[in-house]
Design brief:
Layout: E1 8-12, H1 17-28, E2 32-37, H2 40-50, E3 55-59, H3 65-79, E4 84-87, E5 93-94, H4 102-134, E6 137-142, H5 155-178, E7 182-189, H6 196-199, E8 201-202, H7 215-222, H8 227-240, E9 244-247, H9 249-260, H10 265-269
Parallel strand pairs: 1-2, 1-4, 2-3, 4-6, 5-8, 6-7, 7-9
Amino acid sequence: MPDLKGKVIAVTGAGSGIGRSLALGLARRGATVALADKDAAGLSETARLLGNYPHSSRAFDVTDHAALKGWIDGAAAEFGGLDGIINNAGLSVVAPFADCPKVDFDRVMAVNFDAVVEGCRQALPHVKARAAAKGSGWIVNISSVFGMMGYPTQSAYNASKYAVRGLTEALHLELQVTDPNVSVIRVHPGGVGTNVARNSKVIAHMPGTPEGIDSAAEFEKAVRTTPDAAAEIIIRGMEKGQHRVLIGPDARFIDWMVRIFPVSYWKRIGSFLGGADR
């Protein structure tokens, strides 16, 4: 089982939530962490919590691909290589597809998918080189349960997370042949208590939704997992070299339901998930 001690792992979206918990969990296992987030204040707090654990941090938007490349190359140069990357940064908007402006849809895709593609592209040469020399490496991409099922008002988020799933599955199959020491892991969190829902831009709800509904509050009622617990599951998946990681009882439930009822799952679980607006 791969040991994370002495490894260098890059983490995006490390200013809060799962990303912060990943940074702390990896550092406690002896890894050096290179952290990124557009939220400079949040990133500074993560760095403060890390204390004397070896780390670096840089504030930038992951949609700035030049900055993303510079951060990855810089971490590899500073720490003598890069053993893995966790593409964790993400955001969402709330809107039926017909009501979602192109600029908002495209922003979700840019952060949740395009930046994951570029993170993989820039990190892969470093990770492959280290895996060849040291015997292990990681590409970890955060999808979602919404990368396994559709959800009303989440077409942009669904599209991005399904895309992450497809990218990660293909990369896994390729590297099994060319670089079997690199573990490519897709992660499907269920409800986790992060800021994603609270920070979501609410544009419109489904017809018939009660007026004044607080989507974030409704989501938080359904949360089953803390960021620390989610990070621990991901890190254990890295140590075990798992390809697919499900986080939370809701993720496991949804996984089974969409397998058993691939066409009619929504009729069976829509009310469980909170109807049209979770």
